[in-house]
Amino acid sequence: MSKLQRVGNVLLALLMILGGVVLLVQPEEALLVVAMILGFSFVVYGVRLLVYYVTMARHKVGGVSILFIAVIAIDIGSLALAFYDQPRVSIVMYLVGFNAYRGIVTIARAIESRMFESRWLLTLAHGIVNIALAVLCLVFIGSDQIVLLIFCCGLFYSAGIRLVSAFRSTDIVFIQ
Hints:
Oligomer: single chain
Low-confidence stretches: none
Order of helices and strands: HHHHHH
Structural class: mainly alpha
Number of helices: 6
């Protein structure tokens, strides 16, 4: 990780912590804000993958899958922005889907890192926490305050993981 990426991770983590605190302090319209954050984050993620596809991934093996993921992410983000007036149902479904997907991918990365004898325990814990957040969202689907608290806990945890990864040394894996 370069120094610029480390600074970007620290700034993004601080922004996530600030956003979580603001959502906890002002819970009146918080679900609407969370719906907008989720929608914009999916759209930005999709656009970022689309730019990656156009610049590099189309020349690689499996690059078309990056294009499909980008289009799906943009569609999901646009759908979330379109349903911002029905925040409870859309937020819970997006939180469940996002955390479950992120948890499964993170656990798969941890298993892959373990095969290369790299640091994998923190990655595995991050994946397990994401799946636990998805399950908690399903359990407490009827309460706006608990769903908001789960979202804020996820923000704080992700910010903590970003801070830890920004300040730890980067492993280099050599393939023999």
